[in-house]
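Shipment paperwork, digital attachment
Item: protein structure file
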Amino acid sequence: HRPWWAVLPTHILICLAYIMVYPVGLALFWRVAPAGARAMYIGIFFITSFVASNLVGFLGGFYATMAPGLFWSLHGAIALAGALLALIAIPASRAVIDAQHAPQGAKASA
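Attachment content:
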């Protein structure tokens, strides 16, 4: 076991990262969502956060039963899969955002 004073900086760093990323994600959902469906999109953002938090708790339960190398390899594989999905989604996301923020004349001619 590690002493609390050795773990505290890591916990603070993770909390700071969370509070810096969460508002940006919320603002992105607000900006990209169609005006009539913004509340639904914000709800989806919060539900996604809820599901992710529960998934993290579930996966954390394996820490006591799995070998450390396997446990962290599982987390690395999940992170890699998420990064690959994000890279795949970038072109589609850009197309949607660009279409919503294009001038009105450009939308009609496109």
